[in-house]
Amino acid sequence: MQRRLVAAFSGLLLLTACGTSQETQPTTSTGAGMTAPSQSRGTSTAVGQYRPGSQEELAQTIGDRLFFGTDQHNLDSEGRARAEAWAGWLRKYPNVSATIEGHADERGTREYNLALGERRANSIRDYLSAQGIPSGRLRTISYGKERPAVLGSSEQAWSQNRRGVLTVN
Question: What is the pTM of this model?
């Protein structure tokens, strides 16, 4: 009886080990064309399926960022479309609260970019509130130029750093 139990347990361990592959592990971009294991709080149950209401689901299904023009904080048509999608997603998960991050590119002073990031985050928050998302579920923070998504001093890098990011709390 004990041998059968050990054999069954060993077989189960073998099946479990064979069922795990690199392809099922969620990854995030490192910004240099490389990927790394995801550090977000969501968990992958299968390729493309994440815990409902998680950061991973938001990023994979809708996208977790929108972009601004140089020295701009108002949402353009693409930004409004993304914010409307966020509002729909937040309505789908009424127990989820979120932080709206405001970011800027490297040009300008630290103080200017912190203020610009704050205006960007507030603009997104105000738009989401106008879409019916209670302001108590939304927090804003400005990182200014302190957390670039892309390193470099080119328009391509700057355009990716002028952003608002929705993060699930």
Answer: 0.73
Q: How far apart are CA 99 and CA 169, in angstroms?
A: 7
Contacts of 36-43 with C-beta under 8 Å, sequence gap 24+, read: 41/168
- CATH 3.30.1330.60 correct for 50-168: yes
Which three-class secondary structure state does DSSP give residue 123?
Answer: helix
Could you tell me which residues come within 8 angstroms of residue 40 by beta carbon, excluding any fewer than 6 positions away?
26, 28, 54, 55, 56, 59
At 12, is the secondary structure helix, strand, or coil? helix
> For residue range 9-34, what is the model confidence (pLDDT) as tens digits?
444 433 333 443 333 333 333 333 33
User: Residue 48 — φ and ψ, nearest 5°?
Assistant: 85, 0
Query: Residue with structure tokens 């002073």?
Result: 109
